[in-house]
Design goal:
With 323 residues, the chain is an alpha/beta fold. The protein contains 13 helices and twelve strands. The strands form three sheets. An eight-stranded parallel barrel has the order 1-2-3-6-7-10-11-12, surrounded by six helices. A two-stranded antiparallel sheet has the order 4-5. Helix 8 links the parallel strand 10 and strand 11. The protein is globular and about 55 Å long. Pfam families: Aldo_ket_red (PF00248).
């Protein structure tokens, strides 16, 4: 399985990956993004920014890179970068299908992405991903599975995914929403010919949203690699917006609120890869300091206090503007 390569990495940042949601398209819901990206959001400007982030990440030990069909041109930017660096064969590349990007490079589109978990959507988007990433695609995940997703019950889709897995592609799923734990457990029950279908799960977990933790521990125990997304809660755990507990401990450690917030996730025994969603190289460098943050039990207890009720967290996330 491609993720086994991460376990053999020797750098302290080997368990931190880079997600491209914030830089593959001009509009996203991260707080502070106006300041991060400025006014020039042209394709070529974001391509250059993405390549700079990828260079910086690789130089600092990051080996997992995460894209999606709905992240604008993230797959294209990643493919271009890989094409210019053919010797980087220690990288693990993941992408996702199930949402179509519909904003046409606009920051104020009525809809930025449309969800579709049908077999037809998989086949169309798999062909699109393959056209860009070809043999470099290691992991392909269903994007944002919920308990009522047809992807959990579509036997024909399962057969196609199992066929892809038999050909060497790792198959996984991501989750979103207040019922992440239910979705994870439902996906763990999906089998083809008596064998579990999914080998990875990518879920939201952070200081403010901890509800998926027990199910993620179950997934880990079942042999899945757990990837954690939105560890910064779309910017709500960054310096200007972070809860008091995060700010106070960051001051004591001398590092950023982001490093503290991500360090909490790295401490979870089930967390295989924790994604940085950095939009700038400075943010990335600060995120990577999470690997050296030493949190004691008292600090971890203090950092558990800001957690929100899941429905409240996801309702607030849904109200974040697309910058």
């Amino acid at each position: 399985m491609p993720f086994a390569r991460l376990a053999t990495a020797t750098t302290p940042t080997c368990h931190i990956g880079l997600g491209l949601a914030a830089v593959g398209r001009p509009g996203y819901i991260n707080l502070g993004r106006d300041q991060d990206l400025g006014e020039d959001r042209s394709v070529e400007t974001l391509r250059t920014r993405t390549h700079e982030l990828l260079d910086a990440a690789y130089a600092q030990g990051v080996r997992y890179f995460d894209a999606a069909r709905s992240y604008g041109r993230s797959e294209e930017f990643l493919a271009d970068w890989l094409g210019d660096r053919p010797g980087l064969d220690d990288i693990v590349v993941g992408s996702k299908w199930g949402y179509t990007y519909t904003a046409d490079w606009s920051t104020d589109a009525e809809k930025h992405e449309v969800k579709d978990h049908t077999l037809a959507a998989y086949e169309r988007q798999r062909a699109e991903s393959d056209a860009l990433l070809g043999g470099r695609l290691d992991l392909y995940q269903i994007h944002s599975v919920t308990p009522d997703s047809p992807a959990l019950t579509d036997k024909e889709l399962h057969a196609k995914l199992a066929e892809a897995a038999a050909q060497g592609l790792t198959v996984g799923f991501s989750t979103s929403g207040p019922a992440q734990a239910d979705a994870i457990r439902a996906a763990l029950a999906v089998t083809v010919d008596g064998e579990p279908l999914f080998r990875t799960v990518q879920s939201t977990y952070n200081v403010l949203e901890t509800s998926a933790a027990p199910a993620l521990a179950e997934a880990h125990d079942a042999g899945l690699t757990v990837i954690v997304k939105e560890g910064m809660a779309n910017g709500r755990l960054a310096g200007p917006h972070a809860p008091d507990a995060v700010r106070e401990i960051a001051e004591r450690t001398g590092l950023g609120c982001d490093a503290v917030a991500l360090a909490v996730i790295l401490r979870q025994p089930w967390a295989g890869v924790v994604l940085s969603g950095a939009a700038t190289t400075n943010q990335l460098a600060s995120n990577l300091h999470a690997a050296v943050v030493d949190l004691d039990d008292d600090q971890l207890t203090r950092l558990a206090t800001p957690a929100e009720e899941p429905h409240a967290y996801w309702e607030r996330r849904a109200r974040l503007p697309w910058h």
